[in-house]
Amino acid sequence: MASTLKLSNPALWKEQCYIDGKWESGSETFKVYDPSTGNEIGSCPEYGVNETRRAIDAAATAFKTWGSTTGKERYDIMMKLFNLMKENSEDLAQICTLENGKPLADSKGEITYSASFIEWFAGEAIKETGDIIPHPMKNIRSLVIKQPIGPCGIITPWNFPSAMAGRKLAAALGAGCTVVMKAPAETPYSMLAMVELCEQAGVPKGVVNVITTDKNTKDVGKEMCENKKLKKITFTGSTPVGKILMSQSANTLKKLSLELGGNAPFIVFEDADIEAAIAGVIACKFRQSGQTCVCANRIYVHSSIYDEFASRLAEKVEAFKVGNPFDSNTTHGPLIHSKAVDKTDAHVKDAIEKGAKVLVGGKKLTELGENFYAPTVLTDVQHCAINDDETFGPVAALYRFDSESEVIEQANDTDVGLAAYFFSRDIGRIWRVAEALEVGMVGINTGLISQASIPFGGIKESGFGREGSKYGLADYQIIKYLAMGGLDR
Ligand code: SIN
To answer: Per-residue confidence at 489, pLDDT binned at 50, 70, 90?
Structure first.
């Protein structure tokens, strides 16, 4: 176990895969690094197609029994898991910070968020109902029942190592599905710790299986998409990878949930509460150092308040403390790896070349380590790479606008549509703009929208399907119609 960790429950540190209720070590492994120091923190099995098939077979066998458990049986096990996550939250947060680099306070928030999905879907499982539909013929009744879709493949990203696994696993378990999860190579340990807790909670063998892999990622993903025994794939990650998974799933007509890239617009109208809008930008843009799919990417500020807004935002950003994520004063940690730093830097340089000015930051923080980038505020941003591609880094790019119609057109001028935000106190405008924005989620006078109880998901090339909320279970179910006759005898 990495020496930085002080776990009360060392069993949570797992460097193995989990198939059919057994922890397995691989003969080949890949290394995992702390993004803050660059130090190696451990290694995990480099599994491939054969092990993925074994995991899928285990999930298919376990589905025969798990798929017919009652909602109450699943609720009981899931609530045990929820309670174990709460009891072990300090340890889980340490693991998350070590592998991802987010400050410890953020990791604690993530564990609470992750566990909240388990609690939410336990509740959905126990209260799930069907329908009775009036039938035009007297002696027939029409009924609708909902059944689990079957074994599911789960592929999650490194930016929320616990919460993205929690969100998908919870919905699958609640619906009565079994799963094969592929852990992100950069951050496998949070998912493995969650699976250890699944075992402790009494999740039966074969219901939850985990594969770790780095160089075989593409082959493992392809197998999950093409294997007939998996009935659904849920993926959070980039739009290009989502498109590949969708085409690989075509042959088996697999059900898909894709939560893909965003390029969120954040609009501050002239009638906004400026203080609240600045707090909104900070929460939304700089959460997890800009490495979330729902982060503001293009910040549009009305000309009449632009200069004041920019300088007040810059003052706050300048006060951030970037550094060791285990240090309690640190507000922002490193990015995940040097590729992320290079992309952020390239976006900033491109914006500057096209006329933007740097108010704060705008550079790599090499004195802190290879993966640190200074939280940045850019003003007078013109059309540049940031318009068309999410930066996934701590860069607030401020664009000017003059009219509502113009800014809506600019906000919608992108192929993706996950989240959008705006600040205004005009009730008419609030309805108009909320309805006009081409996204799946709109934050109105708030920069934070995520909760277990809301339908998280996008439109356009941000994908489809909804995670969390009363709609989330449906993505893991089939609807079966029963026509019941013979009532006249
Ligand atoms: C994501 O970045 O994919 C998820 C963010 C969230 O759940 O708030």
So the answer is: low
